[in-house]
Amino acid sequence: MAGRMSKLSPRFAFALPLLFAAAPALAQTTDVKEDSVVLQPDKVTDDAPVVETLAEANLPDWSANNAKALLAFIGNVGAEGLFPKDYNPDGLQAAIAGGDQARLDKVATDSFLLLATHMRDGRTPNAARKQWFMTDNDAEQTPLIALLTSALLSNSVPDALLGLDPVHPDFAALKAALAVAKTPADANAIRVNMERWRWMPRDLGSGYVVSNVPEYLTRVVHDGVVIATHKAVVGKPSTPTPQLNPMATGVILNPTWTLPRSIINEGIGATIARNPASARAQGYTWTGSGKTLSVVQQPGANNALGVMKMEMLNEHAIYLHDTPSKGAFAQAARAFSHGCIRTERALHFSGLMAVMFAGRSPEEFGEAVASGKTTRFGFENPFPVYVAYWTVVPDAKGGVKKLTDIYGRDAPVVASFAKPGRTAAVVISPAPPTVVPTIPAPNVTTQATTGIY
Q: In what residue span(s) does the L,D-TPase catalytic domain sit (predicted)?
């Protein structure tokens, strides 16, 4: 990491004096109210499996050796944070011993597809994934029928399954920690977080920003290396920060703040009605009145978004931004916001974004901040921002540490371990379903009928 930082730092280091000189004086307020999270209902329904016929799948036969390799992998799948009983090891053992090729093909294929689904996408049903809205294209990147076909032809079933593991080293650290977990509770806590890694894209990419909510930290990753770490203030339990991965498209300096109706109703609406001069002194401008009142806070020292806002469009109204409430960053537990993520050392963060991702010079960045005017620097190549929720993370000693589950999201995942997991993403049907054609009967009302299968 030191080498990477030395490569990146000269241009940016040159800008630091300018950045601090350009920064407007920031008020040290204690209660900033930024945009409220738009709470979305949890996803409670799992996707229906894709159904393929035997002819469509065109799978090779399972050899006895491949089936035995799958059975052995299932027997050791506890190391992956999963449970052998889910994948029908007894049925697979019987099919191997029975000598019926058709039976072996069906049982082994069913076990493989379910196990591969859980390793690629996670075992946990959507109903237990509280406030989880990540998008994951692993199904498009690694279709399971193609994976199985290749594994059978190359006699590489275990390697194919292991290849579904998330590539991030934090997942490997959790896997190693699970092997030496001392209590069932410790093991379950690790399994929960291995699951959360599987709910995300297998490969996060070479460049991204990641905020781990229970850790109260935001990291900037470039070429797979963490180049900056910032303390974060996240949503309080009543307005929790959801898990999502929108694309960052730009950084806005000296942003305006359009107040949501909830915050207008909390007090500024009354201030505008009773003491408009005070509201103007705080930078507020408005149109309308009563229920039609629309309020915008202009850029300045009192602006609730501070000097920067990361543009990351999403239906939850979640973004990273500055804050004039600097004192909150001194707290160990920092769940104070209305859902958005407040970012410590916002000038460093936004300067890094402008120079590295928007192609701007340090001088351009400094001038934009100093102008006090709202300026948008669009990113040449938008990148993902992962707003994650890991409650077990690597520590500095080669092990892992448990963080406070501030929103109580671990318990539903643990409870799901005692129940059936997600169904397979793909299932094989022996033959196409029969469709009963519609035949109008004479002198009666026509009704469409279909076969039941």
A: 207-365
The answer to whether residue 348 is catalytic is no
What's the mean pLDDT when you consider all of the chain? 89
Instruction: Check if the beta carbon of residue 140 is closer than 8 Å to that of residue 109.
Output: no
Does the structure show a pLDDT above 80 at 3?
A: no
Annotated catalytic residue within 222, 316, 338, 340: 340
d(CA 215, CA 208): 17
Q: Which of 316, 321, 338, 348 is catalytic?
A: 321
Question: How far apart (Å, rounded) are the C-alpha atoms in residues 95 and 368?
Answer: 70
Instruction: Determine the Cα–Cα distance for residues 47 and 420; give it in Å rounded to an integer.
Output: 15
The Cα 190–Cα 171 span in angstroms is: 10
pLDDT value, residue 448: 35
Q: Where are the beta strands (DSSP E) in 338-442?
A: 341-343, 375-388, 392-394, 400-402, 426-429
User: 365 is written with which tokens?
Assistant: 């960045």
Whole-Å CA distances, 117 to 111, 148, 353: 10, 12, 36
**Residues counted in the chain:** 453
The residues, ordered by sequence, that sit 6+ positions from 392 with a Cβ below 8 Å of its Cβ are: 174, 177, 189, 190, 192, 193, 400, 401, 402, 403
Span 2-30+204-256+299-390 CATH architecture: Beta Barrel (2.40)
Whether the per-residue pLDDT at 450 is higher than 80: the answer is no
Q: Are 124 and 413 in contact (CB under 8 A)?
A: yes
For the chain, the structural domain boundaries read 2-30+204-256+299-390, 50-198+409-427
Residue 303 identity: N
> Alpha carbon 99 to chain centroid distance?
45
Q: Look up tokens 């410790």; give the residue.
A: 186
The pTM assigned to this predicted structure is 0.86
pLDDT tens by residue, 137-146: 999 999 999 9
Q: What share of the chain is helix, strand, coil (3-state, %, to 5)?
A: 40, 20, 40
Question: What integer pLDDT is reported at residue 24 of this predicted model?
Answer: 40
